[in-house]
Queue: 4 jobs
Job 1
Amino acid sequence: MTIQPPTEASPNGRKQDFLNALLSDDLLRVETHLEQFLSPHRKKFPDLVEHLAIYKGKRLRPALTLLSAHALQLGVLPHHHLAAAIIELIHTATLIHDDVLDEADVRRKTLTMHQRWGNKSSILLGDLLFSMAYHQASKTGDAKIGEMIGEATTRVCVGEIQQSLGSQGWELTETEYYSIIDGKTAALTECACRLAGQISRAKPEITEQLALYGRELGIAFQISDDLLDIVGDQRSTGKTLGTDLIQKKATLPILRFLQEASQSEKTLFESNLDNRMVIVELFRKVGALEQVRHVVDMHIQRAKRHLQVLPNSTFRSALEKIAEWCSVREC
């Protein structure tokens, strides 16, 4: 295969084209699984199932499983496609629940599930997707796969609970912040990569390096996303921004600002939480934005180093490029 990763940051459409060019057949199998999973429920509540389309992104987490499987060069098996679909079910469930928790109105320029159908139906639909994921994992015949998925999902829930309990002010430490994002985001990207190694029966030390790549990628992605919540453009991102500020959710950009700001700057910050233009200028003035970008780049480099155990290939290069995308998420 001669497809090469793009040399420059691409809009989401080009990123999707890149993944499709590498994984078109694989992703089609994932979509077939997802449609089969949802088909029985489409008849019972068709409008809710149709609304799930707004949560379909680049299928990044399934792509991580599939790219990792290809990069191992041990063969891509049907269980890789099944595992990738399971990971996407879990990810979609977390997005639905996140939108409820964040009180977000818009995702991909469309009303979120809870805005359209209410909190109760949204939470129950997310629960259904979680349940479907565990059900499908049980069909693999590999207890280790179920264990990995269960462990990752537990970490996601623990991270969300930690964040919810700590969202009433700015007292969170950076250590606590990292503990939260290690669960709520990195656990699933780590699991997506680890599953590829497990299904391929790769050497344990190589599977572990893949998992560590996924973990660092998830951390970089979440920090970048937290930065995007402050400096991003809602028209181009297509989702509600500024929720961390309004809900007083301590993220790394906010923690770094508070660490560097004078008392007068902190006072101005507190009185302008709903004015993102003022907030962005304050963060830029004290150097918080540049600091956080540097932290993101550090985690990107760590992620790429974990891939050095893999043979050189287009698929390893693609995993490296996905890590690099984190540094350019409209920050």
Job 2
Amino acid sequence: MNSQLNKSEKKRRIKTIDALSDYDMEISSVALSENSVPIELKGGKKYFKTQVNYRPQDHEPLFHFPMLFNQDGSPWYEGNQFILSVASDYSFEYDTTKIARKASALLDYKIWCEENDVDMFNYSARRPKNRPSYRYFSYLLDEGKSAGNLNTRTKLVYDFTCYFSSKYQIDKNRIDQVTDVQKSYSSKTGETYQKKLKKRSQTKARNNSRSSVDNSLVLDDGEYLKPLDEDQQKLMFKHIKSSSFNVDERLIFQFAVDTGARKQSILTLRLKHLEHFKPENLKKDGTYEINAGQGCLMDSKNSKNITIKVPSYLAESLKIYANSKAAKKRRKLFVQKYGNIFTDPDEMYVFLGKRGDCRYMAKSDPRFSSTRTPPSGGSIKTIVNRLFKVLENDNDNENEGNHIPSDFTFHWLRATFAYNLYLHLLPLVDAKKMTYSDQIAFIQDALGHDNPSTTENYLKLFTSENVLEEMQETWEERLFQQSAFDLV
């Protein structure tokens, strides 16, 4: 089936329920227990609802829940049952986008089984290559799926089949070969520890060869980043500070360069955080510390708990912006659109769009679970695209080497922060006032890396830069005292 027909077929066979409630109830024509609740129908008929899994009575429904259907239009029992089990599992942080992706990928597998006359629950074949999961794995390899995409899909098929292994009497060892492996990790203090993991055979090794082809890139938590050098930073700052960009857009970029924070943290900054920016909370290094991650108002990647150090000069700029007419107008628009959804008004976002919408919806936002596609920072891409357009029209940019690479992304500013911090610490290392290990630990803590090896990848990249000595004087004594934005 070609891609266009496949999309059409999937659209027909996957529907969304706005709010799925009573998903912990069993429907029956007779009372199953004394707790069964009768529901009267027209004509005197009735049916009963019986709670089969304990949940607090005030639990929220599953918003925008995907329902899967067979070719004949009837509900696909196994698919829906499995997706429901995933969505209602306490270990799964319900996210409408995540659950939609799982449902879509599972339907892809079902459609493939139908097209290839494969019984997805028949694992009687003697040779593994003839069993459903192995055949699908081979198909995905032939399709050239990326390692991340392929591994996610085969893991879903494995979990799905295991879920029904008892019902269809399937030996789990025939679904995939799973072995125990030990993986070594290093703590922030340098201590090494091992963690026991499960490794499946139906996986594809991730290809990290990009960094060997382009040694100016660094791999950070699965993403390739590249720091901007001094000239590139000056060029970016020059235009971001121009009339082509609003104050809040400049502050978003400045926040990234001066803290190394990711967009999900920056864009979920709240007014409550600004209240923390008081003299009594100022650290000796001239920064304020705010927390992000699980249980915090500010989001982080994978809800990991991290501490972000905000320089005092940036904190003051943020407070000035938050009290501006433009910022107040946007907050007013937000309330007009969505009402007073926050129990504490100071939980309001600092960075809102011109129309009063949040640029990135935090997981703690009351609307998050009921929003089908929560904003996830797409407006940042728009700002970056505008930056490139402004650069194209820059007639003063005559220096041939003075340009921003065409593959630049906002996330590069995280690597740029690390680069600036490295240059700031280098004189201390050279003067033997700080050890190499201390330098790694300092940068590791600033970036929130779990493993020192990730931070070491940064340092390997930085020490290979030819412009290192030229840039050194520029950055000495600047960090946390003056913004990189003040270079121009």
Job 3
Amino acid sequence: MNSPPKSPRPATNRKRACAPKNRQSHTWPLDDAQTGTAATAADTTGAVNATALPLTGTSGATWHTGDVFSPDVQLDGKTGYLTTSSKALDLTGSFTLDAWVNPTALGGAVLAQNGSADAGLTLYAGSNGWVFALNTGAGTANSYDTITGGTVQLSAWTHLTVSYDTGNHVMSLYVDDVYVANGNHTAPTTGATGDFVIGYDGTRSFTGQIAQVQAWNGTALSPVQPYTP
């Protein structure tokens, strides 16, 4: 498969991201079928490096072909999402999440992990850019540390990566492999041990396509070199 085209190159004072090579915990290619409802989607890495966490999809999640990623999963922005049966990430430690997305509307959540009341983690398409948020408590109250960066381009594929470095208490956001935002999260989220969800965070439903979601436990992605176009 050819690599998806990148968005226009950003300013040269940004930094390029380097994907971690080890401790990969889960990979959901989201290419399991050509047509119909995305009722199930395999975790292809979990079976090797961790406990496999296959996804279960709702009726609003369907398989889609004929695009850069073919197939991928398409979500209707109403009832469509996919979820695991248990947590994918330990939010008390370092972690990295990575996905390709093609949003057709603002406001939708790409990835989330549930807490007892509110999401412990959410990544969504905000009106002022991509937003990465971590709950400041145990996932029981709607209180978050957030960072925002990049531009949400509708009807265009975008590569998103977020990470948390528990040693330095730093949240990071990368858009199309470029480091665009960081911020502090001093108290690790302790109670968000619910399901991992693609396309919904309890309030925001994603409209568009998602492909190649990956998760790493115990590793925070970091910039490694100046970005030179």
Job 4
Amino acid sequence: MTTDFSAATSSQMVPVDSIDCSPGPYCMSFGYDLNPLILSIESVGLLNSPILLASENSHRMVIIAGYRRIQALKRLRLHSFPCRVFPASALDPLHCLLINLYENLSTRKLNDVEKGMVL
């Protein structure tokens, strides 16, 4: 089954204080070093925008994918940055999890703890 969510998302500058920056239900990052990512962002900028889900019952958005990028951007003291934002009604929790999983698998290998989190 192929689903195109590109029409449901918008790219926008998002203030960091409007993001729930805690590892949410879709986070699969464990035991990582932010320094290479920080160096990359300092050198060439943010290449892949984090993906967020607007919340129906909170003013803070939930991170679908890009938890480590957001942590790196916060360490760089950036107050806002481009993100892809889905409306709360656009995705169910399974699709959010799958977006995170496939985005991570397309850019890196999961460590053993992260593989266990997927299961």
